[in-house]
Specification:
- It is a single chain.
- The chain folds into two domains: about 1-210, P-loop containing nucleotide triphosphate hydrolases (Rossmann fold, 3-Layer(aba) Sandwich); about 215-324, Magnesium chelatase subunit I, C-Terminal domain (Helicase, Ruva Protein, domain 3), CATH 1.10.8.
- The protein contains 15 helices and eleven strands.
- It has helices at about 5-15, 25-35, 50-60, 75-80, 115, 120-125, 160-165, 175-185, 200-210, 220-235, 245-260, 270-280, 285-290, 295-305, 315-324; strands at about 40, 65-70, 80-85, 90-95, 100-105, 125-130, 135, 140-145, 165-170, 240, 285.
- The strands form four sheets. It has a five-stranded parallel β-sheet with strand order 2-5-8-1-9. Strands 3-4 form a two-stranded antiparallel sheet.
- Helix 10 (about 220-235) packs across helix 14 and helix 11 packs across helix 12.
- The longest helix has 17 residues, at about 245-260.
- The model has no long low-confidence stretch (mean pLDDT about 85).
């Protein structure tokens, strides 16, 4: 079994050379990598959203494609297109930028709904279908999408079906004064990204992702996850609550966090720490609650407070033998 704690520390340390003072956000990105899930990085311009995605790609021994979304982009610009080759007398598939391992979807909300829909099959089924032919995406496959939550002119809100396909939503926020001074020092002569090199190999990434699935989740913790997700659907302030995919995502993310902390079992603390990044973007707040400035993050916090935390043992049988 891969030492996932050492694996994650390598990646986190490498990302920390570029993204200063954002340990929690970097850890969430690594959790997304271990779960083979997609991450939505949402924040104001200039805080390092695109740089975080590029730094992750540089840290991994994987192919990297970038899609700069614009309103005039077509679905074929994302998935690829079949072009007729006159010499061979047949159609040939020219793959689009979505066919890669680490894909940066920059300013994803600038694309029209028709183009955004081209990502749905790729993000969930890890394949694209062009002219009736299905093309399987490489492993690992991870979409890192960025969007600006403030600017609305020339943008299109992400549909609920697409938001639900993101494992996590990450927000960076502004750096502290000391961290911002360090950024000035680090980039005075050369950008740290230029010297970044891969720290983990492709084989290690795939093995770590498989090992995360074996982290033990006790029946009590599984019930806690489902009760927490169900409570988001029952709130009067919610128009649409978290889906069963949200429960699956919360369970898998909990496994990754436990493994990163050196445990082979999930605790309720893992679930509480990840509930907002995993569930908040899947919740649609009702119009009445929106008028009261009630956010989806606040609804998840209230759900955590209202859901009783399970007690008892959370270890697997193998872990019990080790402790003895």
């Amino acid at each position: 079994m891969t030492d996932i704690k050492a694996f994650s520390e390598q990646v986190i340390g490498n990302l920390g050379k570029v993204i200063v003072g954002k340990q929690q956000s970097i850890e969430l990105i690594v959790i997304g990598l271990l779960c083979q899930g997609h991450v939505l990085i949402e924040d104001v311009p200039g805080v390092g959203k695109t740089m975080l995605a590029r730094s992750l790609a540089r840290s991994l021994d994987c192919s990297f494609n970038r899609i700069q979304f614009t309103p005039d982009m077509l679905p074929s610009d994302v998935t690829g297109v079949s072009i007729y080759n006159q010499q061979k007398n047949k159609f040939e598939f020219r793959p689009g930028p979505i066919i890669g391992q680490i894909v940066l979807a920059d300013e994803i909300n600038r694309a029209t709904p028709k183009t955004q829909a081209a990502l749905l099959e790729a993000m969930e089924e890890r394949q694209v279908t062009v002219d009736g032919v299905t093309h399987v995406l490489p492993k690992p496959f991870m979409v890192l999408a960025t969007q600006n939550p403030i600017e609305y002119e020339g943008t299109f809100p992400l549909p609920e079906a697409q938001l639900d396909r993101f494992l996590l939503r990450v927000r960076l926020g502004y750096p502290s004064i000391s961290d911002e001074i360090r950024v000035l020092d680090d980039q005075q002569i050369q950008h740290p990204l230029e010297t970044l090199t891969p720290v983990v190999k492709l084989k290690e990434i795939l093995q770590a992702a498989e090992d995360v699935k074996r982290i033990y989740v006790s029946p009590a913790v599984k019930r806690y996850i489902v009760e927490l997700t169900t409570r988001t659907r029952q709130s009067e302030d919610v128009y649409l609550g978290a889906s069963p995919r949200g429960s699956l995502s919360l369970s898998r993310a909990g496994q990754a966090r436990a493994a990163m902390m050196g445990r082979d079992y999930v605790l309720p603390d893992d679930i509480q720490a990840l509930a907002i990044p995993v569930l908040a973007h899947r919740i649609i707040v009702s119009p009445a609650a929106r008028l009261r400035d009630l956010s989806s993050e606040r609804i998840v916090k209230e759900a955590i407070q209202a859901t009783s935390v399970p007690g008892g043992e959370f270890y697997s049988e193998a872990a019990k033998k080790k402790t003895k």
